[in-house]
Amino acid sequence: MTELLIEFFSEEIPARMQARAADDLKRLVTDKLAANGLTFTTAAAHSTPRRLALVVDGLPERTADVREEKKGPRVGSPEQAVAGFLKSAGLDSLDQCEQRDTGKGVFYFAVTEKKGRETAEVLAEIIPAAMAELPWPKSMRWGTGTVRWVRPLHSIIALFGGRVLDGGYDIGGTQGRVVFGNVTRGHRFLAPDAFTVESFADYKEKLRAAKVVLDREERKAKIKADAEALAKAQCLTLSPDDALLEEVAGLVEWPVVLMGGIDESFMDVPSEVLITSMRTHQKYFAALDASGKMAPRFIVVANTETLDGGKAVVAGNERVLRARLSDAKFFWDQDRKTKLEARVPALEKITFHAKLGTVAEKVTRVQLLAAEIARAIGADSDAASRAALLCKADLVTEVVGEFPEVQGIMGRYYALGQGESADVANAIADHYKPLGPSDSCPTAPVSVSVALADKIDTLVGFFAIDEKPTGSKDPYALRRAALGVIRLVLENGLRVKLSEIFAAAHGAYKVSGFAPAGNVGGDLMSFFADRLKVVLREQGVRHDLVDAVFALGGEDDLVRLLARVKALQAFVGSDEGANLAAAYKRASNIVRIEEKKDGASFDQPVDAARLAQDEEKALFAALNEASAAARPLLDAEDFTGTMAALAKLRGPVDAFFDKVTVNAEDKELRANRLRLLTQIRTTLNAVADFSKIEG
Q1: I need a surface site. Which of 130, 358, 579, 593 has the fewest CB within 10 A?
Q2: Alpha helix (H) residue ranges in 636-649
Q3: Across residues 533-539, what is the average pLDDT?
Q4: Does the domain formed by 568-692 have CATH 3.90.870.10?
Q5: C-alpha distance across the termini of the chain, in Å
Q6: Burial call 336-348: b when 16+ CB within 10 Å, e when fewer
Q7: What is the rounded CA–CA span in Å between residue 445 and residue 430?
Q8: Rg (CA), the chain
Q9: Cα–Cα distance for residue pair 359/389, rounded to 1 Å
Q10: pLDDT of 123 above 60
Q11: Where are the domain boundaries for CATH 3.30.70 in the chain?
């Protein structure tokens, strides 16, 4: 078995594209290997700023011989059928075919044997084909070339078993093609000379000697470890930032971690602004002191070693950072001169959506809805209304204009600075939350009220104008908004009726002249049911149980719904519950078949006087007792107790099916027994629609 090594060496590939490109390269090449009948044991892709590499081990020297058989027409078939078969099989005459008795007659078979090819020959075709299909988000042409690549391509290593493959990649124009070779280069500054390689082990070792860490994860680990060590030496800790770590690992081939200082004059600017400015523009990491506050230090990852130990690099970065932070401080100082409330009219110039008005109009709607939600959950409605009024005002500040990532956060700072209460200020900061599954969920009642109002206003508006998510497309992040509402409700245990809140939000749109009337509430509840399945699936809850509870209709209290679903899951997971679910299906199937046969329904009350056998009498009594016991338990939302009451039906139901013939010859007796089966269905459906339960 033999090793394939590929490297595409180019100018700097954008950091955000590298990891995806490496994965795409691996997928494209391995898919093409499989399509050509080539097996392998392992495949690993690597990326640095100037190279993509792939090593595939365990390849055979040749593809396997292939024998193909194609069945043709019956011997003696019309000449036209025979001619068509020969043409499709690529044969000249029937002498090249075999005749076989298949047991259903004698047929012609075309048998062709394709000899295997040299793997090296196949690889020479696969590599340029994979290169042409690499889905770069952005690509370019250079020189006189006509073929696009992410950045100008300098060389290609293509080794199979240590031997250079015969081939190359055509760039087009007068540039011709980049011929496959065994030569690459190391670090641009520290080891720029070319060198040859013989295998992946040799390649990786020589790259390291040439100041290139090939493995992306290794670079990340080194950056993180060195940064933590630098911070620890100053009695600080590294501010965690996985996204920045991922990006910086794509900017350097030989990471050298250094620490610089931040002028104390900038430290009165909110740390979120300082950190955002550093990470966005300069790709610096922040450091925290023992109390968790930002320290006047930054950590930069250089891509080179210097004779002075990085002093000049640090000094240069400090100068650049000083200019960046001077801008941030100026914006911060200017913004504080104008109160948030005075900025609200400027929101009229920002369009929320062409069919849904401006951000100022959205604020008016959110104000009303936040106050209503606050009253429903026992929060301060005045504070919720005030926070809703101010929550978008920081969108027109200089800091947020420069750093959109800190919207909401800056609103909190400005609100506190102008004397707003902590509840109002925190609600402004939290009203976008939760932004995703890893984001924290607000718990303060005023914050929860505003966050719910903002998301529900968005959901109702876009559903009303029929801008719903379709397939994988969700341009307005409505799925995320719905998941945010679900988390806010469930994690805070809010007993609210979502349909009433949807109606209030829709009413606010209609009053302002937007959003045509429609079944927004019903559509949204169906949408929420799908989102809730996603949430509960992660908690190990079956999706069919959510469907079974939602199918009852009228359930818009997510806390109650979740309690019912979890009780149902425990019930159907027990022997009694599983047997009753099976009995439900059996009873339902019998009733459905007989109703179709008779053209009549059997939902009338059971006639107790016509119950003939002890087993049906016992089942009738048990059903009545279970219904009577379950009803108050359901009203009290004791779903576990309700399930326990239903579990007592198992014995009588089993006995009924063992001993009683439903389709008796006596028509009245048969009808009464079918009504008894219908009562099984009705009794269990009081808890959930058992027809939706799978299995």
Answers
A1: 593
A2: 639-647
A3: 83
A4: no
A5: 47
A6: eebbbeebbeebe
A7: 11
A8: 35
A9: 11
A10: yes
A11: 2-62+118-210
- Cα separation, 238 vs 388, whole angstroms: 35
SS3 state of residue 189: coil
Name the residue with higher pLDDT: 206 or 542: 206
- Which fold is adopted by the domain 2-62+118-210? Alpha-Beta Plaits (3.30.70)
Helix then strand then coil, in percent of the chain rounded to 5, is 55, 15, 30
Contact 127, 167 (CB under 8 A): yes
User: In the structure, what pLDDT confidence band is assigned to residue 600 with cuts at 50, 70 and 90?
Assistant: confident
Q: Is 2.40.128 the CATH classification of the domain at 341-540?
A: no
Q: DSSP of 531-570, one letter per residue?
A: HHHHHHHHTT--HHHHHHHHTTS----HHHHHHHHHHHHH
Pair of tokens at residue 15: 């950091």
- Beta-carbon contacts of 308 under 8 Å, excluding residues fewer than 6 positions away, are none
Q: Are strands 153-160 and 177-181 parallel, antiparallel or unpaired?
A: parallel
What are the DSSP E strand ranges found in 223-353? 237-238, 256-261, 285-288, 294-302, 351-353
Length of the chain measured in residues: 695
3-class secondary structure per residue, 482-537: HHHHHHHHHHCCCCCCHHHHHHHHHHHHHHCCCCCCCCHHHHHHHHHHHHHHHHHH
**Mean pLDDT, to the nearest integer, of 205-222?**
97
Both structure tokens of 159: 């080794």
Q: What are phi and psi of 400, to 5 degrees?
A: -70, -35
Half-sphere exposure of 513 (CA within 13 A, CB side): 4
Which residues of the chain form CATH 1.10.730.10?
568-692
Sign of CA dihedral 395, 399, 405, 410: negative
The DSSP code sequence of 441-476 is ---SHHHHHHHHHHHHHHHHHHHHTT---BTTB-TT
- Confirm if 134 and 140 have CB atoms less than 8 A apart: no
Q: Per the structure block, which two tokens stand in for 371?
A: 């106050």
Q: Please give the sequence-ordered ranges of beta strands (E in DSSP) within 230-384, or none if there are none.
A: 237-238, 256-261, 285-288, 294-302, 351-353, 357-358
Helix (H) or strand (E) holding 183: strand 183-185
Tokens matching residue 538: 């992660």
**CA-CA distance, 287 to 294, in Å (whole number)?**
6
Strand 66-74 and strand 153-160: the pairing is unpaired
Maximal CA-CA distance, the chain: 104
Amino acid at 459: L
Is the per-residue pLDDT at 515 higher than 60?
Answer: no
Residue-wise pLDDT tens digits, 55-101: 999 999 998 887 788 899 999 899 899 999 998 888 888 888 899 99
Which segments of the chain belong to CATH 1.10.3210? Answer: 341-540
Q: How far is 338 from 466, CA to CA, in rounded Å?
A: 38
